[in-house]
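The protein record quoted in full:
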Amino acid sequence: MDGDTEKSENPTLTSQVVQKLAQQKKHKPSDTEYRIGAIPFGGFVKMLGQDDTGPAEETDDPRSFANKPILIRIAVVAAGVIFNAISAVLIFMLVFLIGVDLPPAVVGGVRPDSPAQHAGLRPGDRVVEVNGERFVDFTTLLLAAALSPEGETISLVVEHSDKTTDECQILPETAPGADLRSFGISQAKTLTVAKFSDPEDKEQLYETTGLRPADVITAFDGRVVQDAHQLNELIGESLQPEGVLTVERTENQTGEKTMVDVKLPLYFDATRDNFKTGYDLAHIYSLVPRLKIISTKDRTRPASFKDRFSGWWDRIRGKTPPDETGPFLEVGDIIVKIADTEYPTYAQLRELTESYEDRPMPITVLRRMGDGSEALITVTKIPRRQPGSGRVVIDIYPALDAEHPVVAGTISVEDGPEPLEIPRGATIVAVDGEKVENFYDIVRIIRKNRGQRISLDYRIGDDGGGVGLSIPVDDDYITAKNNLAPPVSTGFVPTAYVPFEYLKEPYKADGAVAAIKMGLKKTSMFIAQTYLTLRRLISRDVKPNTLVGPVGIVTMSYRIVASQSLTYYVYFLGLISSVIAVMNLLPLPIVDGGVIILLLVEKIKGSPLNRQTQEIISYIGLVFILAVFVLLTFNDIRNLFFH
């Protein structure tokens, strides 16, 4: 009786145990690994037995990645790439739903003798279509030129300021010293003084210019200006020692708007920009003034990291030039002689600097002393090659000496007059019988006498002479332009540089459907541009030193966070997701594209490659990717400190 009862209870107990074990197995964590990383931000999903860095783990478990059909495995691997693209679409959709400020496809400036100039583009023109694509911003223009096949024209539809439109074909070219093809245009700026996050930068701006961040320029010398190009034109044509900017200033405390006049020094640029030659010498009817230093190394400040890195770079190259000893070049010095060349022009300065690389180069300058007198001082400089740019420099910013009517030389002018027969170092004493004290006087008299023939008298030492010049009605043959002070590198004596905000416009979708369309369009554009970049790298149309790596991405992220809106940073993340989608699909070992290639080989061959072969392929891929990583990091460091 007891035995029968015991037998009848055993099946019930066994059933309970089985159910308990089944329940435990049911709630057991999956063998698929899900991971989200904070640093670096991202994540992945990894199936049981899956290994992208080598052969899949061999196991009899039917759930293992290696035991799944090849098409299923390809789909699993490709899912990562697909979700990179989907992430980019979602990011861009969110960005355009909220709205993001981007630089519009507006031409800010056109370089002389550039493809843009030959195609008829003008400052203020708005490009509304690029090769049939109407969703464009300024980045679209830059990339269209940079990634175009060599010799292939690009179709642009341009809207002019009078609202008329033209279609033009433009052939991008590579300017001297540039790494990428371009149209020869610059991004449009506003009349608003740029903002700074560093209080020291704000204070320096006010000390050197009298301006404050967010000031809005409304007039130059009493003439109202509507845009940055008009301001530049008025300054350039003024050819005077200083100008007055009228600005609208909003007081931070009260919000009250006031009008303030600020007087700024102006400079004759030593060169005139030229897309094909790099630069042309600036001149006044073939006359080239002497060079004057407007900024140089600030020796009161401790050596910057860039300077220390430059010294380290010299030691690596086995070139350790001797340290320079005083006297040193100073702001306001006028260059009268370099080595054996008297009164060198900017072109001769560049040639001599190159020829004296890592060797002492004597420079004689005319310096105004504390008591107002002038004295000749000889300074020894050691030109050094700048890492990154490859240029040999002596750490000065030269302009033309317009304050003294002394001629450094005369030059031939294309489609212009023959060089005036005036010796180097001659001082112009009179023009058309009127006494002159500087080149501003010379410019004023030449402009006043268009269509006339006038005389020009000079003196050199105890000798004198004169020449005649005929001035056309429609051209005074003056290519020298006035400019505000140029920006200088960190560690230089600050100039009265005025930074302006770049023009930006809101790009915002009308609704969710439009945001999805814009997200899809922007993702497809960035994916296509990434693919084209890789193609141009292979065809050598794009140089490897133009690429950025992790350090560059972090640097750009920091700058965006520091100076841009959160929306723009999210936009940047969408760009990164688009790029990663393409990179993961490359047919390289250890990335998704390489794994897919091996799976296709397995499909064709009927069996996977042996373990040793797969490991060798993986090691080759690792070495290649490590080499690319090192190259990109080198580019990033070079660009960070020397560009």
Notes: Confidence is low (pLDDT under 50) at residues 1-11.
